[in-house]
Every structure is written in C-alpha cells, then in structure tokens.
Amino acid sequence: MRQPHLSTVIERRLLVNYRVAPDAAARLLPGPLRPQLVHGHAVAGICLLRLGSVRPTWAPRAFGLRSENAAHRIAVEWDGPDGVETGVYIPRRDTASRLNAWAGGRLFPGEHGRADFQVDETADRLRVALATRDGDTRVDVTVELSDELRGSELFADLAEASRFFRSGAKGYSATSSGRHLDGIELRTDAWQMEAGRVRSAASTFFDDPDRFPPGSATLDCALVMRGLPADWRPLPALAPGQAAQPAH
C-alpha cells in the first residue's frame, strides 16, 4: 500500500542534544548506519514534537489532527547510491495519540509507543515531560529561549547548529519485526531555529549506564522550532545492511 504524504504545522519542536562517545552510539545502530561525528563526538538527543493540522497533503487543513510526540534519535550517515548521506536513526518513538500509535508503521512510516505528556509553555520557557506506557522511558526537560546558542561544544553558533540539523531531515526508525527500518523525510521551506538554554533535563534513555557508560553521554544544547508548515514524506524501507535507495 502506498503511504500518504502528510502536511502538518510544527507547533513546537524541541531538540535536546547530547555529545556522545562514538563507540557508545555505534553500539545502538543497525548497519549500514554509522554515527555522524562533530568534532569527534556523536550527536544524539530527544525530539519533543507537537504537530498540528496533521492530514494527507490533499486534505483541507480544517480536517487536521494535533498530537504530542517524542523521538529518541542519533545523528547518522550511510553510503547511498550517490555518496554519503546523513540523517537520524530513531530507536524509539512515542506519542500521546491513540491514532498515531495505531497508524504508525501501517498507514505511514514509524511505529509509535504510547506515552503520557505534561506540557507547560510560555513565549520564552518550555517544559515537556513524558512517561511511556510500557514504563521503559521517562523524560523531563525545561528550556528557556535564548538570543544565542551558548555553551555548546558541538556547534560554534546557532547558524552552524541549524545547518547540521537541516541536513539530517531523513529519519530511519526501528520496527518491531527487526527486518527493516521505516523511513520518513521532513520537508519545509520555512526552516528556522531558535536557541535554548537548558535549565534541567532528565532522561532514563540517556541516563542509563548500561546504554551509556558514565561520561559517554553529556548534555550539550537545546534548539527550538515553532509555527512552521512542514510535509513528511515516506522513504523506501531500509533493510539492515542495505544501502538506502532514493525516494520516488
């Protein structure tokens, strides 16, 4: 079955980013993916995403849905048919939406677990917390908006960070079968990022010493996108060990 292209509005996309030891990141990746390095570090993080007006591209905006979602992600590269490509690998996705959890992996790429979210937002401060229904993962992040990116060892400034994440718009996510990776690509002509200052961040995913031995995952920075129209386009599924094929 052909999967639909989706139109949305990114009401809020909060990226909380970690510097990760390359060997720790590599252990979490299926082939042919490998960590994309920045100044010798792998880059991983949490995407806390509220989408509005979610609908097939042919449907009127008035019929769109709204949902809170989260993705744990690792920046990756792989050898494509035209050279090295970049994107992210997503070991788990979670959503507050029952529909997203049912449709993900069926009607559009990306299997989702269920999670309960707590959100507190103002114009210059964001707090997003979640607990997954399976009890595996908890996240609680508070970020304040800033006029510039400060304290990052990955990126010299906001412009450099924005270029890096814009080049990683393709995402491949784990599936329950383990036989393939679901692929989806974010497309927007209105790309814009704001810098954030992390006031607190806790994640059982990144704080797990079995997954990330002490010192191998360090909080680096936060970035925010708000109020951007965006489309999401399916990519051909990727089998572990298989080079990605171009989308049609």
Question: What is this structure's SSE topology?
Answer:
Layout: E1 6-20, H1 22-26, E2 34-35, E3 37-38, E4 41-56, E5 65-80, E6 83-95, H2 98-103, E7 113-121, E8 125-132, E9 138-146, H3 158-166, E10 170-173, E11 181-187, E12 194-203, E13 217-225, E14 228-238
Parallel strand pairs: 6-7, 6-10
Antiparallel strand pairs: 1-4, 1-13, 1-14, 2-5, 3-4, 4-5, 5-6, 7-8, 8-9, 9-12, 10-11, 11-14, 12-13
**Shape, principal axes of CA atoms:** globular
Question: Which class of secondary structure composition applies to the elements?
Answer: mainly beta
Strand-and-helix sequence, N→C? Answer: EHEEEEEHEEEHEEEEE
Number of helices in the DSSP assignment: 3
Please give the radius of gyration in angstroms: 17 Å
**Poorly predicted ranges:** none
N-to-C CA distance: 15 Å
Q: How much beta, percentage-wise?
A: over 45%
Helix content: under 10%
Mean pLDDT: 93
Largest sheet: 14 strands, mixed
